[in-house]
Design brief:
- The structure holds two protein chains of two kinds.
- Chain A is of the alpha/beta class.
- Chain A folds into two domains: about 200 residues, Rossmann fold (3-Layer(aba) Sandwich), CATH 3.40.50; about 180 residues, 3-Layer(aba) Sandwich (Rossmann fold), CATH 3.40.50.2300.
- Chain A is built from twelve helices and 14 strands.
- In chain A, helix 2 packs parallel to helix 10 and helix 10 crosses helix 11.
- Chain B has one domain.
- Chain B is about 75% helix and about 0% strand.
- Chain B has a two-stranded antiparallel sheet with strand order 1-4.
- The longest helix of chain B is centred in the middle third of the chain and has 27 residues.
- Classes of the chains: A alpha/beta, B mainly alpha.
């Protein structure tokens, strides 16, 4: 057989396959043709089975990769909360059976595992995530499949979803109190240092708007990728700009490099203090340098004197593999589990739509370690007290400022006239 | 005899096509079918790596670059399709007043996007390959250079958050060329496209391997100077293989986006590029099916072992990789031939023979 005739046959085979592919395409396309009107097409029927004596819940935390150091603690406290709930009779009399998945600090993996938990494991709700990037990867999937996702970390706001409950702070519960605190300290010049991803970028955009209103000058703004530790040249710019305060939105281990560069450059908490929104009791001792005298803005501190906090700290210290200290994100994760229990029991059902309806119809509260929090059934965030802590020698926080009452969640900053209405509208429109 | 072997490979592709296009959709749930679609995307890129590395001897450690060209072209189009007349939400978030970046505008057009997915990798690989191969850059230097490009591109994307979505990536696509992506039927359609394109890529390399070009490519790999003395320019031979492999990576990347629903710099950087190589080495880089099956096996391992044993699975992958490199340098696909050879002559070390025998398999 000649070479050319062989080549002909191969090409014919390829052509035939291409045709087959086109036929397959046409078949599928026709079926879906009627559906192009609405993007939120009818979700697949839920496969959640709660007819037995248990209810399945999914935990989605990064157990490997760069965020594992923070997210393992959240995973562990979720286990503790579900053990507690099981010991006291479960949710609606059903014991929690959890499925733990690893998000691997990889956003597509978060999306894949969310789909797996909802469609293969048929869990009634998912708890977890840490970075805003992971939440943004999970969001389209839970919305598509009409699942529930409980997100336990402070974030940049400007978001709400019928399928997500946010138990960490939104901006008006953490960033804005921090700015109010700075204004009360008479700060005139502020430097912004952050990791290069969605939370710091958005938080700083909001900080700049509010700073203009407060009369605080932003004397510089620097970003370093999440996985990079070298802050030397950026800190040199801070030294040159001579700010009164540094607003730190750096996340994860990059903080270690920042703190090192800060002290190496001769900066001190006495003259140029840092206020952070990602350094808590867990992180402070891991900075590789004493950070006493610097500040952080959170809702919960281990040092808070509330009725429920001592028991929470005691249970956590006794829990296997516990880190020994409590912190804001793990407390928010603890809240999320009890909030879900309260929601399901108010709804009398694990059904997502009924749970959401119960959130709107009832005043859902929980006596959390940070105080009694109340769920806003419309935007799925909770009320929180604002606190500013100063780091002491034991790497605990002395509370130096507190909001006069619990702050109602306002993710789209509708109660703040300095936030441009057209931007809000664009964001709401883009969110669909 | 060699002729029959060549047609045996073709029927192998046929069986593979039946498995992917008929058996898998019937047997698998939506979730696993979608995962299989993702593995097909990596397999498409892997087939290209098999061509460039297995047959051409060019260790392409930066296929993430071409994967990114396809993926981000597709992702920009789908983002604009979802946003409609508005500016995509993430851009508003970082800078409410700025307009859409210039380089996004053409991606509104579906035709431009499809052309970009095909032409961008060809142009980039063409220029890069021409510059490198004409200067006779090869071996470790070539590998390091391609790897560095993947790292650089990932850093560039991470640091341009408003233009590219940065580390968070691009996600939340609602439409795929007019089809609603939430519809399971349409998700299945995207799977079929990926699976069919994988088959097309396999057929393309099957044809390339048995053509005179395929012989020249292997000759260039094994004795570049001799090829030059025979009057061919090895640079041109390598350039074609490099461009074809870049094109395949781009196609894999483009389909990855609607299937997975998100693209981030982590999927195109150094680690991702090396994982693609690992799959190819695992399956057998010079064989026809080895790269595709190896890439799919690694993808499956990541999904399933990553669930049951998250801390351990990377160690398993590493261990397998070491075992394969040490004891089966031609990958798992050389195992049957090796066993057969061992049965025939138990006392002879068969390794050198295998490469030739295996190459023979798909040549006419």
């Amino acid at each position: 057989m000649s070479n050319s005739s062989k080549r002909m046959r191969a090409l014919m085979a390829t052509g035939a396959l291409g045709t087959a592919m086109a036929l397959v395409l046409a078949g599928c396309g026709a079926r879906a043709g009627d559906d192009t009107a609405g993007a939120g097409s009818s979700p697949a029927a839920s496969c959640v089975d709660t007819s037995g004596s248990t209810v399945k819940l999914g935990f989605l935390n990064s157990l490997t990769g760069g965020m594992a150091i923070s997210e393992k603690t959240v995973s562990n406290v979720l286990h503790m909360a579900s053990d507690e709930i099981n010991a006291s009779g479960g949710i609606l009399g059903k014991k929690i059976e959890y499925v733990q998945e690893d998000g691997a600090t990889d956003w597509p993996t978060f999306a894949e595992k969310t789909e797996k938990l909802l469609t293969q494991d048929c869990v009634a709700a998912i708890f977890g995530g840490w970075t805003s990037s992971s939440r943004k990867a999970v969001k389209p999937v839970v919305e598509k499949l009409n699942g529930l996702f409980f997100y336990p970390v402070q974030y940049e706001g400007l978001e709400s979803s019928p399928n997500i409950y946010y138990t960490g702070a939104t901006t008006n519960q953490q960033i804005i109190p921090a700015m109010d605190f700075l204004a009360s300290k008479g700060v005139k010049k502020l430097f912004l240092a952050g990791s290069d991803y969605v939370f710091p970028r958005t938080a700083n955009a909001i900080i700049k708007l509010y700073a203009a209103k407060l009369g605080i000058e932003i004397v510089g703004e620097e970003y370093v990728p999440l996985d990079k530790d070298d802050w030397t040249s950026q800190v040199a710019k801070i030294v040159a700009a001579k700010p009164d305060f540094i607003f730190n939105t750096i996340n994860g281990s990059s903080n270690v490099g920042f703190v090192k560069a800060y002290y190496d450059a001769g900066l001190t908490p006495a003259k140029t203090p840092i206020i952070s929104v990602s350094i808590a009791e867990e992180e402070a001792p891991a900075m590789g340098h004493e950070v006493t005298g610097n500040y952080a803005s959170w809702n919960y501190f281990q040092s808070l004197k509330t009725d429920t906090n001592p028991k929470f700290i005691e249970s956590w210290k006794a829990y296997p593999n516990s880190s020994g200290v409590t912190s804001d994100p793990m407390e928010a994760a603890y809240i999320s589990m009890y909030l879900y229990k309260a929601l399901v029991e108010a709804a009398g059902s694990f059904d997502v739509d009924k749970v959401n309806a119960a959130a709107k119809a009832n005043k859902i509260t929980f006596d959390a370690p940070e105080g009694t929090v109340t769920l806003d059934g419309e935007n799925h965030h909770i009320s929180k007290p604002g606190h500013i802590g100063q780091i002491n020698k034991d790497n605990q926080f002395d509370v130096v400022w507190a909001s006069d009452k619990f702050i109602e969640p306002d993710p789209y900053l509708e109660g703040y006239d300095w936030f441009p209405a057209d931007v809000r509208k664009q964001l709401v429109d883009a969110a669909g | 005899m060699t002729k029959s072997k060549s047609w045996l490979s073709l029927s192998g592709i046929g069986v593979f096509a039946v498995l992917l296009l008929a058996v898998a959709p019937l047997m698998l749930t939506d979730h696993w079918l979608n995962n299989l679609g993702k593995y097909c995307c990596w397999a498409i890129a892997a087939v290209g790596i098999g061509l460039a590395w297995g047959r051409g001897g060019m260790l392409v450690m930066g296929q993430g670059v071409f994967f990114a060209l396809g993926a981000y072209s597709m992702a920009m189009h789908l983002t604009l399709e979802t946003a409609g007349d508005r500016i995509p939400g993430f851009m508003v978030l970082y800078d409410p007043l700025a307009p859409l970046p210039m380089f996004w505008e053409p991606f509104r057009s579906a035709t431009f996007t499809l052309l970009a997915i095909v032409l961008l990798p060809v142009i980039v690989a063409g220029i890069l390959g021409y510059a490198l191969f004409k200067r006779r850059v090869k071996g470790a230097y070539f590998a390091i250079l391609t790897q560095a490009l993947a790292v650089a591109l990932a850093v560039l994307i991470s640091s341009t958050i408003r233009e590219t979505g940065g580390d968070t990536g691009l996600s939340d696509f609602k439409y795929f060329f007019g089809f609603v992506l939430n519809d399971p039927a349409n998700k299945a359609m995207v799977y079929f496209i990926a699976a069919a394109l994988l088959i097309v890529c396999l057929l393309a390399v099957w044809q390339l391997y048995r053509s005179r070009f395929g012989e020249l490519l292997v000759a260039t790999r094994d004795a570049e100077e001799r090829v030059r003395f025979l009057g061919y320019d090895p640079a041109n031979v390598k350039l074609v293989a490099f461009i074809v492999s870049a094109l395949m990576a781009s196609i894999g990347g483009a389909l990855f986006v609607p299937i997975v629903g998100i693209i981030t710099p982590a999927e195109i950087g150094a680690a991702a590029s090396i994982l693609m190589i690992a799959g190819v080495a695992f399956g057998g880089r010079a064989s026809l099916f080895g790269p595709a099956l190896g890439a799919m096996a690694v993808g499956w391992g990541q999904s399933s072992l990553g669930s049951t044993w998250p801390e351990g699975w990377t160690y398993i992958l590493g261990l397998l990789f070491i075992v394969v490199v040490l004891f089966l340098p031609n990958g798992l696909s050389s195992l049957p031939a090796r066993l057969a050879a061992a049965r025939r002559k138990p006392d002879v070390q068969p390794t050198p023979v295998i490469v030739a025998a295996e190459l023979e398999e798909v040549r006419s």
